Each structure stands twice: as C-alpha cells, then as structure tokens.
C-alpha cells in the first residue's frame, strides 16, 4: 500500500470554522485507537475500490461527521462519529414499542439533538433484520413491525440529509475492520454472541451480503442434526449450542438436576434455577466458580467447531468474536481456539485463521453504521 500523502493528514478535531465542533465534543480519551492499516474500501454492498478512491474518501470525510444509530429491542443508541471512528457525542432513548412511525420520530429527535452545532453529512441506521441490497428498505426486522418498510425514503424526507440502512451485525463488522480488531484483513468474518449468534463478512473492502442480501446467518448452520429446536424452525442450529441462551439453558438444566456442582449457581439466584442466565454463568466463571467455567468451556468447544466449519467454507484471515458473551474473554475464546484447531479441515497442512476478541465493544454497531453512511454518501455524490 502506498504511503498516505502529507495533505491527507487529519484535520484538527476542534476546528472552530466551517461547521467545526464545540470544544465539549472532544472524543473520549482512549475510546478508540487510530487505524494501523488501511485496506481497500468500497461502499456497503459494492465492489472493491482502488487506493486512490479510498484516500479521496478519507480526505473528503475527515471534516465530515456522521450520525450512527443502533436500534435494539429495548433501546435506541445514537452517536456523532468522526472519520477516525471516534464517538464525539451520544444520546439514547427507549425503543418505542413496535410502531414504525414512533421509531421514526425517535430517530428524528436523536438526529436533531446530536446535530446541533455541527454539520452532519449523513445518517447510518443499524438494526437487526434483513435490508434490501440498496440499503433503502427494511424487508423484515424481528424486533420491530418493519415489513418491506421504505425507511430510507421516509427518513431522508424528514431529515433532509443522506440516510443509509444496514444490518447491525454488518455495521459492527465494518467498524471492527476499519477501526478495531479486524484492521488490515482482506477477508474478515465477525461473529456476535448474544441471545443467538449473528455474523457478517468484510471481503476485499466491502460488506459481503450474498446474492439476496441475507448472508451471514451463521448461527443457523445445522451443527447437530435432530438437536435442540431453534426459533428459526430447524433443529440443531449452531446458536443452540454456542450462544448466551445456550449457556443459560445448560446451567439451568444442571441446577434443576440438583447437581452438587451447581450450588454457586443456585446461590446466585436465591435458589430459583429458572432465573439463571448466560450472564449469571459468565459472572460466576469470572469469579472462579468451577462449574460455571466448565459450562463456558463446553460452549467454547461448540464455538470452535462452528468456526472450523466456516473456515472450510470461507477461508478468512481472521475471526473477530464480539457480543455480550465475550465478557468471559479467554475463558470462552481459549477453548474455542483449541476446538477450532482440532476440527479444522486440512489441519497441519494449511494456514489457520486467527481468532480474536472484538475491540470496540457495544458501540461497534453505531460506529459502523455512521462510517458506512459516510463512505456511501461520499462515493455517490
């Protein structure tokens, strides 16, 4: 890669003119590190672009700010994000039920609040669900009543600025590739471990969404035929064995069996086994409880097996693992690495992908949504 020309140096964050930032908008100290590598970049869903276009996008975007919005089942998180991936200002609201119009009003309120005093170039919105390939319509969202909803058109009319829709896992993967643990990777696969398993790919500088826009549903690869019933309707899906829900289910079964090794688990929930969750097990494992660590190791083994399957199909250079379950850190990832190495096709005769924890935490989705909207708006002006 060619060195960045001197005139590509970033503009001061606190520029007082041309729509610059109020002093109180300085990025949080230590929130993110600067990128150490600059792979090729293209718009969401597009094709790889050349180095010259990438540098042009960065140069144009450094003085431009974008707002990223991450819509979850219980909260809507938003932030002003600069071209270095720093969050300069944040705001949150409760998710207003499932009414699409109410959600639109909350988005407009957040954008108006965050854009006061600065020139916002674009808005990126990340949400669980399927978006069309153009990033204009929400085809289906499990948390909200969006069914073939032309959300981009609605919001661009209300906000008078470019808006982009993106799947939340895709947004988080893009953020990790641009600013986090996936920097410098030509083929990156991100896995999000929470209630289920989310997934996304950044390949040769673009988010790979497949032919119909629904790639990345890794959690629904069938890893145990005839196994546990999944919410998707199938049996034996990966997320039934390697997710936060799976961890909680196994712990509850252990406690309900009156196992002597489950005493700490029951003590943590005042004897009510039904209240044990994956977070309960993770907290106890970090505190040193042997049974909880064993349960996490089991989940890590299933995680590594699924990653080996993905490596056989996709051959990435790195897997980045994020999501709430990753609070367990190496208690989860270390057994996953061992299981991955044990089950990798061609092991011993081929390079193996690295497996690392995500770097950006719960803000990855809004950072990625903002940055994707900036890249796309710059390339289509």
From TrEMBL:
EC number: 2.7.1.2
Domain of life: Bacteria
InterPro entries noted in UniProt: ATPase_NBD, ROK, ROK_cs, ROK_glcA
SUPFAM superfamilies: Actin-like ATPase domain
Keyword terms, alphabetized: ATP-binding, Kinase, Nucleotide-binding, Transferase
Ranges where the record places region Disordered: 1-48
GO molecular function list: ATP binding; glucokinase activity
A GO CC term assigned to this protein in UniProt: cytoplasm
GO biological process: glycolytic process
Protein family: Belongs to the ROK (NagC/XylR) family.
Protein name, entry field: Glucokinase
Source species: Arthrobacter sp. K5
Taxonomic path: Bacteria, Bacillati, Actinomycetota, Actinomycetes, Micrococcales
